[in-house]
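Appendix B, example 12.
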Amino acid sequence: MSSPCLPVEIYIEILKVLPTSKSDPAEHTLLSCLQASSVTRTAALCSVCWKTPYDVRYTHCVCENEKKRKEASGGDWRLMYIERRRLDRRALRLLDEIREERSGRHERVRCFTQYSFDVWDALKLESELNVPNYFGGLSEGPLPVNVPADALPRRYWAQAVLGVISRHSTLKRLAQVFTSPEGKNTSFEEALGALSSFFDVSPKEVTLQLDEIYAQCLETLSAENVPLSPGEPGYDFWFLCTQIRHSIHQLGFRLADGPQFYSVMNQFPHHFLSPGHRETIPMSLVYVYVAIARRLGINASPANFPGVVQVHIQPPDPREEPRLLDMRGTDEPVIFRYCGSSYGAAHSPASDEATRAATPDKMLTRAYNNIIMFMRYERVYAGGMSLPWSSEAHEAAFYATSCLMMLEAPNPQFMPSLPSSKPLDAVAVLQDVMAPALPPITRATVSGYCYSVMEEHEESAKNVSLRSAFPHVKYFVGLVMKHAICRAGEHLARFPI
């Protein structure tokens, strides 16, 4: 009698293409196969079956740690998956301690800066837990069922820890941009993308957004038969540069007008890269162009041009001069020596730096000046124009601005503006990352401030504030009571209570 099971090879091919997503991981199917029979267990133990579930679940990692995991497991995706899941469980247990125990939170969150992006994906899932039906506006799609009773606090603290991990990493990079020669090698994409960390967004998430936009631009360029490499027939470098701008415009990226131009969120990549928010300022349009062009092998950079940020394009032929590209319209790239006639009084001959590829510190300085101006505009004018603005967004934006200003200033005389929405940043971010990058005098001041914040939180955790000055209250408001002897007359029984 023949076996009812298919050959192992067929099961392996089926499991390799098993549909998977973060909301519906294939690991459940693979675990069931491990228990079903010896044949399906043999197939589910195959490393290649775990590659797709691993890639879908884990989009973030610490590169050095990932390399060690691959070496330790011999490249076995199943063993790597198991190791990451163990790490996830340790991180979630630590997160529960932060949520449940008020004292010691700042020391515990330091452990997450060591885990870093290795636990990002687990925390991200925790921050997106379904909420009860009466908070249905926080969830997309149908109303959830079987929601954890503690979903809201779990979401809150997971989001807070995500922000700490992201800012701990990006502030190190930003500190290098302003304080060390190695920081000059930071790309414009990395430098400006780091600003989104102040909204609890990781650099990898911004990169994934840009990768998606790049893929869409490639589709547009291919559909219009634009040669992309010098080896293709009809290749024209400058024509390709203008077509890249055209493909970006087709995706909805264009110059904002009216009050929308002054939205403070126009300076944060995770926002203006999202569909529906792509009408933005010139610097953000240049950011998108530079990211797409560099993925195509074109040496594009921002130019810190007076008035409007331009794209600086260095052609592959060293005999050709670099040119500037304006992202606002459809003008051809301009050779530097024609900038005066093309832009009129906007170009200052004394400011030769304005027509060169800008360094990341110059663009970050311009970015935080934009943020300050936009915040002032929204606060002063938005109320009269009935324009929405978020105080929480302004707090996060000003937090970013204060950190950048402190890193840039040779001897800053102010403190970082730590918002209440970032309750775990004082030690793990400001004390451990920001303070060491500052001059000695300012470093001591910032360290003292961070220590006082931590002490205040610890003292608050020890004190129990009673809502009443009467400690012997027996009953609470709303308690249903039944009298031993009803003193009400029978005539009151007709009236409902």
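The longest helix spans residues 151-179. Residues 187-389 form a domain with the C8orf32 fold fold (CATH 3.10.620).
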